[in-house]
Structures are given as structure tokens and as C-alpha cells.
Amino acid sequence: MQNIKAYVEEHKDRFINELIELLKIPSISADSAYKNDVIKTAQAVKQSLLDAGCDMVEICETPGYPIVYGEKIVDSNLPTVLVYGHYDVQPPDPLNLWNSPPFEPVIKKTDKHPDGAIYARGACDDKGQMYMHVKALEFMTSTDQLPCNVKFMIEGEEEVGSASLSWFVERNQQKLANDVILISDTGMIGKDIPSITTGLRGLSYVEVEVTGPNRDLHSGLYGGAVANPINVLTKMIASLHDENNHITIPGFYDKVEELTKDERAEMAKAPFSLEDYKESLEISDVYGEKGYTTNERNSIRPTLDVNGIWGGYTGEGAKTVIASKAYAKISMRLVPNQDWKEITELFKKHFESIAPEAVKVEVKPHHGGQGYVTPIDSIGYQAASKAYEESFGKKPIPQRSGGSIPIVSLFEKELKSKTILMGFGLDSDAIHSPNEHYGIWNYLKGIETIPLFYKYFTELTQ
Ligand code: BES
Ligand code: MN
Ligand code: MN
What we know:
Layout: H1 4-23, H2 35-51, E1 56-60, E2 67-72, E3 80-86, E4 106-108, E5 117-119, H3 127-142, E6 149-155, H4 163-171, E7 180-183, E8 195-200, E9 202-211, E10 217-218, H5 229-238, H6 261-267, H7 274-281, H8 294-297, E11 303-311, E12 321-322, E13 325-334, H9 340-353, E14 360-369, E15 372-373, H10 379-392, E16 397-400, H11 407-415, E17 419-421, E18 437-439, H12 440-461
Parallel strand pairs: 3-6, 3-7, 7-17, 8-16
Antiparallel strand pairs: 1-2, 2-6, 4-5, 5-18, 8-15, 9-13, 9-14, 10-12, 11-13
The chain binds ligand BES and manganese (II) ion (2 copies).
Residues 125-126, 158-159, 161, 185-187, 200, 203, 367, 401, 403-406 line the site of ligand BES.
């Protein structure tokens, strides 16, 4: 595969412009006001797959947003790579913190991205990373170098829990049969430190509601005599961690796999500067579970975080009031072996048990998913490793990530194949935040690396 670099060089302006067009469509899956845009994006992805050389592309209807399925079958005796990605994006809020509108992509140079980065919601998560696979396919088909079969499955509900994808996968095992699943929806340590993601955390997401009196009350007339749901809720939340930042829910750690000394020592070899980390976040110190390093805290350890909390008066000025209700959204990141449904139950039981008599508590489970770890001795990992080695000139480091792609464990269960996570984003790319961006260098490097994966995977499989 001599000419992938030259091909990228020749077509890079078009690759960038095509991605920019895709980023202009606000495919926000969480907000039904954008329904037409989400569907429009599915159609644009379909067209791009046809243009890239798929033999067959269809928009598969589901109870929710459609799944774009495409394939190019070269020979049924050859291995099949199934590419997964998502065309939906997170809501862009808070809008006032964006330096340019989230759906009007602009290219700007930064310290981390001297070649420029595309600023737009979804630039990195996941339109930019998904589209690298479309362009890699274009290269392989147009130069007659596709060494195996390929299937694409691009969904529109990843950011809201992938409910329709589970439905689709369970009903289409035959159609989706493959030898390896390939995903670019994670990150890497740095441009000069390529890494392959070998683990994802699971997730349990819940919402809690604490109700005190039946109506909002004057805080002078009633204050001190009835439970204030906001006081109670914050106290309950505070009690979920002890002084060592361990989570206090009984049974929470029962199934957590403790890594061996050697495994932890191996992890600690990954380049990491605590000083740079603190500086980039403008914090004087890190904070987390006692006995673990920052990299352990954000990958191999489970966590509990409040994602949002509200209630009472938050408008201008002051209003003296005891609110009737207080709310919070809480996420728990889980590690492999912890079952998200079991953890959700443990949370619910514990949270209800610590509520004082004076309030009512309701715990509403949202979505969740299992964690995932992938071995590094599989053919898929070896092929990915060789691909990075060739395009980066360096062997990649295996790295467990703290993020979640819950559908990956379902793929293993239903399709019986391993997933390889070839992510090209950087932690500083601000995914889910204002000013999300994706480096042009990363985008083009991804397009360059992916065809090499196909080549080595096919070679190693034969
Ligand atoms: N692509 C991310 C997950 C991710 C990002 C994993 C970076 C590793 C590194 C994905 O789109 C995402 O945001 N997942 C959600 C979970 C989902 C159920 C909403 C998450 O991790 O919060
Ligand atoms: Mn994503
Ligand atoms: Mn995301």
C-alpha cells in the first residue's frame, strides 16, 4: 500500500470540505426539535458510502432514528470488517461559550493543532472520526486495494443510549456477521504517542427527585421546621463518598476487578505529566479515590458523579423560598464485571434507605451499559498495532479509556466478535463541550492508518 499518503495529500482539501458539509447539519439526537436534521444526516451518510464504493447502502428504519447500513462484499472467503460509528451529536449548549457557532464549522490553528483544527459540534465525536472510515474506503475501492469485505453500520442514537441499535443488532445477526469490529470514537495519548484503546467503562445513569412539602414555602415562616429538599439532597449526595473518596453504596465494589501490581506498573509506563494535566485544566490539585493515580482513577476505577443538580430559585436577585422539590442527574462509570443493572439497583436501594422520613425520594434509572476490555494478543489488535507502527513510525501503546460506548459489549455478546478501538482524537478536543474540534492532522492520519489495518488484518487472518 504505497500510495495512501499520496492519495490523502492529493485529495485532502476535498476530504476536509466534505466533512465540513456533514458538520453543518445539526444532528442532535437528544432534542426532538432536530428530528429532520438527524434524518437528513443519515441520508448524507448513505450518499457518502455510495460515493465511496459500497455496493449496497440502505437506511434501516428502527423504532427510533435510522441506522445507515452499507457493504462491499469482495469474496465470501475473505474476512469481513464491520465499521461502527455514529452520526448523531451532543447538544451544543451552553451556546454562549462557543467562539464560533457550533454548526458553522471553521478551521483555526492552535498550539496543539498547528495544521489547523475544524471547530464544530461532532467534529471529533463522532462525525470526523466516522468519516475517516468512509474516505479510507474510497481510497481502497478507487485504487483497487480493498483486501477484504467491509460492512458499515452508522447509528443516530449513540449519544442517547443506542436503544434502537440494540434492537437492530438483535434482529440482524446474519447481516452483521463479521470477523472484527472497527471503531474510531475514542482518543489517543498524543500525536507523537499513538495508542489503541483497549478498555471502555460501563455506565449507569440515574435521575433522583427529592420531594419535601407539597408546595414551595416561605423560608422564614417554615424554615427550620420542615425538611428542605435541596439541603437534604445535597447531604445525601455528599454521603455517597467517604473521606477517601470511596463510594459508600454497599456492594458497589464487590465485582470490581483489581489489577495486579504488574498490570498497574505496566499502565504507569504510559507517558503522562501531572503538571501538564493540572495546567491544562487550571487546577491546583487533582482529586479522587485514595490509593490510585490519576490515570487509574479515570480508567480502571469506578466513579460516581453528579452531572446536574437543580431546584428552588436560581433567577436574578434573591427569593426567600423552600422549594418543594430538588433534583439531580447522577452517572456512575463502571469497570468490567460490574453489571450496570445490578449497580443501578444497588444505588436505588441505598439512596432510598438514606433518605430521612421527612422527604420522599424517587430514583429513575435512565440508560446504561457494560464496560469492555479487549485483549492485545488478538489478530485485530496486532493488525491495528502494525498499522499504527507503519503510519506513525512508532508502536502504539494499549490504553484503557474512561469513556463509554455501551454498545460494544453488546456487539461481543450478539455478534461474537472483538472490537478494535482506533481512536484519533485528543483529550483536549473538547468533545461534549463548547468549542469541540478535531485536528486536521489527526483526521488525515486516521484516513492514512485505516487502510493499513485492513491490509494487515487480512494478511494475519489468512
Ligand atoms: N465517543 C464517546 C465515548 C468516548 C470518548 C470513549 C472518548 C472514549 C474516549 C461517546 O460518544 C460518548 O460520549 N459516550 C457516552 C455514553 C453514552 C451512553 C451517552 C459517554 O461516555 O458519556
Ligand atoms: Mn462518540
Ligand atoms: Mn459522545
